[in-house]
Specification:
By secondary structure, this protein is of the alpha+beta class. Helix content is 31%, strand content 24%. An 8-stranded mixed β-sheet has the order 7-10-11-16-15-14-13-12. Strands 2-3-4-6-5 form a 5-stranded mixed β-barrel. Strands 8-9 form a two-stranded antiparallel sheet. Helix 1 links the parallel strand 1 and strand 2. Helix 4 crosses helix 7. The two termini are 40 Å apart. The chain binds 4-amino-1,4-dioxobutan-2-aminium adenosine-5'-monophosphate and magnesium ion (MG). The site of 4-amino-1,4-dioxobutan-2-aminium adenosine-5'-monophosphate has 24 residues, from strand 11, strand 15, strand 16 and helix 13.
């Protein structure tokens, strides 16, 4: 029996200067991408999923059962034995000259992925097969590497990873877009199991804040659920979110951490996934590399919400057409407004800060009288990171640490009941603290240039779409 190899470690061995011909007889398992032959000699592109690249397998009428091999079709599972031969004059640096090719799993004629360049929309309908397509080989490997980038960034800085619960009794954002949990067919759907209303988490923030006040720097990173019916390219009802929380840290420190984290993640992926990133910049977004390099080399701009409103009003005056053009201080910005600021004005990542209190979550730190709206309206120490092509990918804030101020806001909103423990954190050694939430899928879109969130999640969940 020959040495068992795979595509990834063989390319790595080659890159590190190992003598592949000294491997002797090798054995490799994978799937045929293509198979063509001239009657004398044939070529199978063997892909085994361990790398973006394939290995070319060459067989000839010397190989055992040449005819059977010639009939192997796209997607068939195969086992190849043979020897590695260096091919310095060819596009690929080496190939396998086959002694045997064994068919392990044949492919039915109705295999839907025959077409070389199927559309992303078509592939979305066959989510169980699309991981085999080039685009999704690249997307899902980068997704895996990006998750490691996130953990590496925080772990290297001593942050403690906290597994906040997926099932909760709170609506952490106070926005009402929660999925309620019940067991079927009981007369009390809200209380049947836990004896209290239960839902899937919309954010781990409140739970992780408690850990920040014990471990200083912490993060949670997991699935998040929102029953928003927004049918856009950027909204999913199940997505992943990274939520760090930093004790003894204000809004400025918060933004520094966000910027360092985004830049670290981009650098990490560029270094670990050169083949995948080259694919994206060839087939998905030609300007991707320039964009990412510019992001790495430029400090992120910070702009006050009030300033942003003035710029948008000015743009309308100068004839710029927005779908929603009635721009007033106090409004929640639409995606088109965010994109105008980050794409047309700043032309790069932009922190929009100090939003009106009325449009932001209850836990955000109230700013002082030096930062109020045109009619004295209160603002909060919030920051949204807006990026070209997408709009918001991160939302963060300094948290209200003053017990009385926070309690008054919660009482007014009516969500104090059940969140007394969260308020108590302000009574028991509370301190200035801040945090943020990075939409993991949106960050992946940004780094790969993929423009629909449905193409960044293995099995996307959106309203009226639950297949697989
Ligand atoms: O701005 P959001 O709602 O902030 C929070 O949830 C805070 N608790 C975060 C914190 O301070 N710890 O959500 C944070 C990010 C957004 O900027 C966006 O990138 C992403 O989560 N996000 C979504 N991504 C995909 N689909 C959705 N429906 C999303 N909703 C939010
Ligand atoms: Mg937000």
């Amino acid at each position: 029996m020959g040495k068992i190899i795979d595509v990834r470690t063989t390319y790595e061995a080659f890159a590190s200067g190992a003598d592949l011909s000294a491997f002797g007889e090798v054995e490799i398992y994978g799937w045929a991408r293509t198979n063509r032959n001239s009657g004398q000699i044939g070529f199978i592109e063997l892909h085994d999923g361990t790398a973006f690249k394939s290995i070319q397998v060459v067989y000839s009428n010397d190989s055992e059962n040449y005819d059977a091999i010639a009939h192997i079709t796209t997607a068939a599972a195969i086992k190849v034995t043979g020897t590695i031969v260096l091919t310095p004059e060819m596009k690929q640096p080496f190939e396998i000259h086959a002694k045997t090719v064994e068919l392990l799993g044949d492919v039915a004629e109705d295999y839907p992925l025959q077409k070389k360049r199927a559309s992303l929309e078509f592939l979305r309908e066959i989510a169980y097969l699309r991981p085999r397509a080039n685009t999704f080989q690249a997307v899902f490997r980068v997704r895996s590497v990006l998750a490691m980038a996130v953990h590496t960034f925080f772990q290297e800085r001593g942050f403690v990873y906290v597994h906040t619960p997926e099932i909760t009794g709170n609506d952490a954002e106070g926005a009402g877009s929660v999925f309620t949990i019940s067991t079927e067919g009981t007369p009390h759907p809200y209380t049947d199991f836990y004896g209290t209303k239960a839902s899937l988490t919309v954010s781990g923030q409140l739970h992780v804040e408690a850990f920040a006040l014990a471990f200083k720097d912490v993060y949670t990173f997991g699935p998040t659920f929102r029953a928003e019916k927004s049918n856009t390219k950027r909204h999913a009802s199940e997505f992943w979110m990274i939520e760090p929380e930093l004790a003894f840290c204000d809004l400025n420190g918060d933004m520094e951490c966000i910027e360092a984290c985004i830049k670290f993640c981009i650098r990490y992926v560029l270094e670990k996934c050169p083949d995948e990133m080259a694919f994206f910049s060839t087939w998905i977004d030609k300007g991707l590399m320039d964009k990412l390099n510019a992001v790495l080399n430029t400090p992120f701009t910070r702009m006050d919400y009030t300033e942003g409103i003035k710029i948008l009003q000015e743009a309308v005056k100068n004839g710029h057409k927005f779908d929603y053009s009635n721009i007033e201080w106090g409004m929640d910005l639409q995606s088109e407004h965010e994109r105008y600021l980050t794409e047309e004005v700043v032309k790069g990542p932009t922190f929009l800060i100090n939003y009106p209190e009325a449009i932001k979550a209850f836990y955000m730190k109230e700013n002082g009288p030096d930062k109020v709206g045109p009619n004295g309206e209160k603002t909060v120490a919030a920051c949204d990171l807006l990026v070209p092509g997408e709009g918001e990918i991160v939302g963060g804030s300094q948290r209200e640490e003053i017990y009385e101020v926070l309690k008054a806001k919660m009482d007014k909103l009516g969500n104090t009941n059940g969140l007394e423990w969260y308020l108590n954190l302000r009574k028991y050694g509370g301190c200035v603290h801040s945090g943020f939430g990075i939409g993991f899928d949106r960050l992946l879109m940004y780094i790969t240039g993929i423009d629909n969130i449905r193409d960044t999640e293995p099995y996307p969940r959106t309203s009226n779409a639950l297949k697989y």
